[in-house]
Amino acid sequence: MLTDPDVTDSYARDRTFLEPGRPLAVVLAETRDDVVATLRWASEHRVPVVPRGAGTGLAGGATAIEGSVVLALHKMKAIRELSPADEIAVVEPGLITADLDRAAREYGLMYAPDPSSYEISTIGGNLATNAGGLRCVKYGVTRDSALGLEVVLADGRILNTGRRTVKGVTGYDLTGLFVGSEGTLGVITAATVRLRRAPAVYPATIAAEFTSLRDAARAVAAIIAAGCQPSLLEMLDRTTLKAIDDWRNIGLEASTQAMLIAQSDAADATAVSERMAELCTANGSPFVAVSSSPQEAEELIGVRRMAYQAKERLGKCLVEDVCVPRSALPYMIEKIEAIAVKYDVLIATVAHAGDGNLHPIFIFDHGLAEPPPNVWAAADEVFRETLEMGGTLTGEHGVGLLKRRWLSLEAGPLTEEIHHGIKQVFDPLGILNPGKAI
């Protein structure tokens, strides 16, 4: 347990600009028993607890509140079991996402969820926010790979949800309830996750340049309509590409307004990638690069993974992750561009384009403590337009602190009432991550 303020402050924030409260202490949990003891003590003394993984969240979900105990789980990183026969793994919450995938690859398997932060984010954090990622267009989000959980409840009791089997419908889906609950219902101390067969051949990758975002969005629709089933389909706007080019010199052309990066891990990946390249050309792309080796494929994907760090160099970032029906993607992109002009805000957009999940990132001056009024106004309009198109406020980052002000717009009074009722069942004293998510 850490109590020195100079030390505890380093555990108090995530990757948002939000100013945290000062925690009472930080507990570095190494076992489930540490979590149980912490929550029993916190319940007895009614002290709020903020669960924390690696602190890579983008919605303020792990931001400390004043007088809380930050329960850090990053030391709980064991792979308790990896069963090639059952294609499952039982893992602790502090395990880095990419480390699980690497361990599975040794058996010809893979862990499918692939958030852009997979080299630094933890399984527990991914479960808490129901993280998506680059491969979710084919393999789904974290919830689709979560079979069962070991959860410590607010009073220290241990709840086991789900099962080891792929199928099972006994009782309510408590596993699905905890995934995405952002630490407000319990603290996950282990997860049984589904593994999948790794592709037999290395995925083939294309990168297509476009002179307009709308052409890029049309290419996305064409690729999906053609049944190409990409394992990755990402889009970057010019603001993002310019930030990457200024940082790493990727040779950005003056006419390029958008880039589409697509990948296939099918048995006929080369043929599929060539088909996707043809569809990009047919929809206005003047230049398409097709990978000819695993190294080239990694370089193309690397452009996408550099996006957030490149934008952080420009200023502080208000990162959003709205999601719209795929058919609405071109219109949402146009709306974001118009909103940026209307409010004179620098917005850099990347998208998991294959499933309609956009990340408009509002960039403001490093010297400001929080976004200025025009940035908040622009974000408000983006959210309202998203809901108008039948979308959602958050596709994978969670509500946290940042999006609570808009939650009622999507949820409505009855849904909010039910949410609070569920919270009351699992955390009657309201000590688990209070003020977050609901």
From TrEMBL:
<keyword id="KW-0285">Flavoprotein</keyword>
<dbReference type="InterPro" id="IPR016166">
    <property type="entry name" value="FAD-bd_PCMH"/>
</dbReference>
<dbReference type="GO" id="GO:0071949">
    <property type="term" value="F:FAD binding"/>
</dbReference>
<dbReference type="GO" id="GO:0016491">
    <property type="term" value="F:oxidoreductase activity"/>
</dbReference>
<dbReference type="InterPro" id="IPR036318">
    <property type="entry name" value="FAD-bd_PCMH-like_sf"/>
</dbReference>
<dbReference type="InterPro" id="IPR016171">
    <property type="entry name" value="Vanillyl_alc_oxidase_C-sub2"/>
</dbReference>
<dbReference type="InterPro" id="IPR016169">
    <property type="entry name" value="FAD-bd_PCMH_sub2"/>
</dbReference>
<keyword id="KW-0560">Oxidoreductase</keyword>
<dbReference type="InterPro" id="IPR004113">
    <property type="entry name" value="FAD-bd_oxidored_4_C"/>
</dbReference>
<comment type="similarity">
    <text>Belongs to the FAD-binding oxidoreductase/transferase type 4 family.</text>
</comment>
<dbReference type="Pfam" id="PF01565">
    <property type="entry name" value="FAD_binding_4"/>
</dbReference>
<dbReference type="InterPro" id="IPR051914">
    <property type="entry name" value="FAD-linked_OxidoTrans_Type4"/>
</dbReference>
<dbReference type="InterPro" id="IPR016164">
    <property type="entry name" value="FAD-linked_Oxase-like_C"/>
</dbReference>
<keyword id="KW-0274">FAD</keyword>
<dbReference type="InterPro" id="IPR006094">
    <property type="entry name" value="Oxid_FAD_bind_N"/>
</dbReference>
<protein>
    <submittedName>
        <fullName>Glycolate oxidase</fullName>
    </submittedName>
</protein>
<feature type="domain" description="FAD-binding PCMH-type">
    <location>
        <begin position="19"/>
        <end position="198"/>
    </location>
</feature>
<dbReference type="Pfam" id="PF02913">
    <property type="entry name" value="FAD-oxidase_C"/>
</dbReference>
